[in-house]
Amino acid sequence: MCFYYYDEERGIAYKVTPVKASVASSDESIVVHTDVKVTNLKKEKIRRTLSQMYPSDQYDLDSAKKIFADTMLSRFISGARKISEQEYQTINSRYEA
Q: Cα dist. 4→53, 73, 76, 96, 97 in Å?
């Protein structure tokens, strides 16, 4: 299940996959990541993977995902409001027309 956001001021729609976390065995750190699809009024589509590593001695998987969502992800989609999937599809089809 994805999450959808829309920034009216910049004319950008975001589709964000759920944040995932796993332990990197090589250095015992936690890797947190999500994929973001960005569509704008110029009909440009950008796909980005946002990721960050956290020390496993300071964070568990859930706290690393929370801090990632509260900092890195929220900065990336700042100014956007959460919308439904149907509203996202409507906005997306309008941009692609």
A: 24, 13, 13, 17, 20
Tokens 């796993």 found at: 22
Three-state secondary-structure class, residue 73:
helix
* Whether 94 contacts 16, CB under 8 Å: no
Q: pTM for the complete prediction?
A: 0.86
Alpha-carbon distance of 27 to 52, in angstroms, equals: 14
25-39 pLDDT tens trace = 777 899 999 999 998
Backbone region of residue 79 per phi and psi (left: phi > 0; alpha: psi in -120 to 50; beta: other values)? left
> Which H/E stretch holds residue 36?
strand 29-40
